[in-house]
Amino acid sequence: xxxxxxxxxxxxxxxxxxxxxxxxxxxxxxxxxxxxxxxxxxxxxxxxxxxxxxxxxxxxxxxxxxxxxxxxxxxxxxxxxxxxxxxxxxxxxxxxxxxxxxxxxxxxxxxxxxxxxxxxxxxxxxxxxxxxxxxxxxxxxxxxxxxxxxxxxxxxxxxxxxxxxxxxxxxxxxxxxxxxxxxxxxxxxxxxxxxxxxxxxxxxx
Length: 205
Prior knowledge:
Layout: H1 13-25, H2 31-44, H3 48-55, H4 57-62, H5 70-86, H6 90-107, H7 113-128, H8 132-152, H9 156-179, H10 183-195
């Protein structure tokens, strides 16, 4: 059931553009970025057995970066988690997602969308392992952090992207609440999701 709403947007627009500049300016031939691209492509194609073999080494490669390069470590755990999640190895994915969140909580601000994505990943891992009650607060953290991210960003495009993601997470949260018997909470989450307007004609400048 969790797989029905697992997100396949594996790299958000804001992180993708930032990371592209890093790879081009700082280290275009670095093994990490070559491996990361292969990993992302396989995840996008949902080739999870190959992705597992390709994404796992990112963790070791990311560890070679200077300590301040936390985004690479965060991404490595996230991608490896996505590969395991796609294989329905939910316990393994949850462990990786928890590592992702541990880095995110240290490296990111409360209004950073990346922190919200880490909370959502842990929520998915807990939901996948059959622990929806434990997943609930992580969904709530993801939603509130996305709301802060949307309010703090100037870009109209990114505001819209964060709104789109928040709408999806609210729908996921509603499904979890309904599963656990909280029909009124589920209705409220669904109504909130429906109230979010997402535009389809905005482009990233």
